[in-house]
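User: quick one
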Amino acid sequence: FLRMLEKGLVYKKTGTVNWDPVDQTVLANEQVIDGRGWRTGALVEKREIPMYYMAITQYADELLAALDTLPGWPERVKTMQANWIGKSTGVRLAFPYRLTDKVNSSHLPSQGEGRDGGGVSTTGLLWAFTTRPDTIMGVTFCAVAAEHPLAAYAAKKNPALAAFIDECKRGSVIEADLATMEKKGLATGFFVEHPLSGEKIEVWVGNYVLWGYGDGAVMGVPAHDERDFAFAKKYHLDIKPVIDVDNKTYSTDAWQAWYAEHGRCVNSGNYDGLDYRAAVNAIAADLAGKGLGEKQIMWRLRDWGISRQRYWGTPIPIVHCAKCGDVPVPDDQLPVVLPEDCVLDGSGNPLAKRADFVNCSCPKCGQPAKRETDTMDTFVDSSWYYTRFACADQTAAMVDERVNYWLPVDQYIGGIEHAILHLLYSRFWTKVMRDLGLVKLDEPFARLLTQGMVLNEIFFRKPDAGRVTYYNPAEIEIGLDANGKRTDTTLKADGQPVQSDGIGTMSKSKNNGVDPQSLIEEYGADTARLFMMFASAPEDTLLWNDAGVEGASRFLKRLWSYCEKFDGRRRDGGAKIAPELKKAALFEVHSVLKQANHDFERHQFNTVASAAMKMLNALDRVDGVDADMEECLGILLRILAPLTPHIAHQLWRDLGYGEDVLAAAWPAVDETALVQDEIELVLQVNGKLRGNMRVAKDADRAQIEQLAMQNVNVQKHIGGQPVKKVVVVPGRLVNVVV
RNA sequence: GCCGGGAUGGCGGAACUGGUAGACGCACGGGACUCAAAAUCCCGCGCCAGCAAUGGUGUGGGGGUUCGAUUCCCCCUCCCGGCACCA
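Assistant: Done. Structure below.
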């Protein structure tokens, strides 16, 4: 943190948070989304507070480009990250304005870096970013965020506007909430100039314009932007089409998807007839010539606000001194240690109430000072814990040389819910550690497996006042009627009803997790493992239900008793095995092995489990022991070892295959066992299954076709109609088209 | 709302490159064993009609491409994950 601070990769600025005005605390997202009475009656307000930020945007380019260097990552995760980083190219342009009365600088608060520094002057520029500069001649309004200085300026003599701005400053800052809320706006009565036409354009305040993205202002082109279209319809603003797509006819009655497509400029003066590319270039050049715009790359990714008003994060090592300002805690006074007897009462940051923690002296001047009480987002810790695993005993440094030997992590496994935040922060942090000379890696995780979510039903009660209580599904009694339909849900403990909140991810906060310990105690670890692996492939979401666990248990018991029987037959000298039975068993075991190998590679362990079951079924059909059967059982135990290591290890040993099943070579598919003299072909008429037939494995096309046409069922369904075509798929089917 | 993923019997799921939909299990029904039960073993099991042979129908809904679509294309519905302070 301190090295990043020195390099400008950590900086301080104000950030917007959800604020609980009753308890005077920062609300967690969950408390806002849930809205289920964590703080009853609380309104959510937006509030600006000072925060420390990590400059992840400085790495946006590399984080995006390096996704191509990660072949071991699932495509869907890479797509999500690319969208999240959100590189878009467009034009940043300015609408000049002139203030109609004399103002001083306090009317136009500082707007931060890169923004319109309107300041004391009576002329200014309203900056906005667009990805569709080709539609610039269709601008009929501009909209600014409620926090924008021009909004504040216009509100000075407009109480209605001031009230609206106030209203906008209430409500959640969560992106999902902003996107779904009703789009509202209010005209300011203030006008700016169109940068190319000079036309007067009215400025509106819109609750959907984000102060945190770009310049906090957008140009409104209702004709070609769906959101602007809806806004213009609602407030009866002009809709001016300026793009023609394949001579389609534009109508302002209702939005059509093609309105947003690229096309040729029309109704755009000098730019008429230009296609998208040409128009963007021409318009960008004209704007640049006037000093009112330029091409720009915009990123969706924002810098990472790491300050949290929580107890349980890493303390931010800063001391606030009245004289010296924010002073970093010197290295020899690190680490800042949290008090271990804090009372977590849910109201605000408990650290702030601890005078013994807060009061300190300034490391610079020695005068009394206040310690920073915000802690770091715990994502900070999860961004680099794995580097410590490579050098856990290192106490003198953050990491040492061994990291470069062990990392990157060969196979990382985590829930798909981490696809963006954790996995992006970790990538960022790795690159920062590299640039600080701490590691020699570009990426932390070579291969990634993202588990699907395990879901379970959520049950809760909400008392009239106070917090929601969540109950574990194990504590719930579900009443069913004669048709198996649910009638009621009650808590076993008191027989009183509870409500269902549907299905959701297992989580501590929703108390809908399942403890595998009870399964392990009842059935053993192997059964618990086999059951869970058999339930679905690891990347799929799964609704938890332990109804099938008996099947896994039964299989392992069957395996055990088969092995005892097998060993007994060995001692008895083994009966003669019918050759066709043995051939069938070998064919089954080896073709299943082939499938299982493929499934292992693609991490589809549920079908590996079913492969083991199929093998046991095949072996059980043969009553006798010989070298081939010995080999087949060995194959079964070997492929089972990764799924149920304990029983596989024990049986492997007991049957004398060797010491350690996991050390044994992986079995090879015997291709000769897969050769069949005859193969079965499916017979279809007009694509419908009408029977099947056996043919020699080397039968040629003509023979197959002839045999198929002779088939009774085929003839019956042809019914004397002329045959148009016969499709023969070798090894699979014959389809007669009539 | 945006981004990502998904939907197949009563249930979990299978079907690798478009080629027998429902593998393997669970549940259920029938039978064997047992005084009885449990455990175990055998048989059946998408839906509709039929004693059966068999026929029709069927992979969330609608359309398309194809000799043939769970698989490819277009549109829609619903569900799950993420949306930056749950971590």
